[in-house]
Protein 1
Amino acid sequence: MATLNKKLSRLRRAKRGRKKVQELHLRNPDLVRINVIKSSKHISAQVIKMDPLKGTSVVLICVSTQQDNIKSQCKFTGNTSAAAVVGKALAEKAKELGVVKFAFDRAGFKYHGRIKALADAAREGGLDF
């Protein structure tokens, strides 16, 4: 096996995670997923509704540290406190839509730091995943 760099390792983890999310969708077609994307400066989360019969997806909610209302609450947008703000905002918007049950797609990122802070804040806000 060839040596893996950081990006290839993340993409391999993402492939496994997305396969698990697809299995969850087959058991419960009404399940929506939270997709988390992070960079060194920002973090964003999307709530995505999949249609397994058509093979399409629709983004229901998008929350990011690049949005003005989130950016004004954070001193710096690339840390765990900013991720917690995004998680809280995501939970509020999801409750307005009436969706509380999710599958968590972390896109291959390890579950610690900003990813964990976002997930914990969303759970505190009342989301179940």
Note: The domain at 6-124 is CATH 3.30.420.100 (Nucleotidyltransferase; domain 5).
Protein 2
Amino acid sequence: MSQQHNCPCTAQCALQSALESIGGKWKLPVLCSLTANGASRYNELLHNVQGISNTMLSQTLKELERDRLVLRKEYLEVPVRVEYALSAQAKRLQPILAQLIQWKMEKEDAR
């Protein structure tokens, strides 16, 4: 009797879910900005992520926070100060992204 092997990328695929957490036009640029600049206020991110609108930055930050990649810290000051920073999960993602960059560079060099 032969063994049946199912494709690992079927319903509830963990890889697909992981890629959705960082997919889209703005998530990686926001994560890269927080990696390079550390904890940042909203307007700093708006300035550092070239081309992003207020609406898209707000939506992207909410999604990254929902996916536990970005932490939002509110300081009870007047006016209220809010900073965004990478979560521990996002920091663990950094070496993986670096490997993807290396893979792409090696692929380009092979041409």
Note: The chain is about 55% helix and 15% strand.
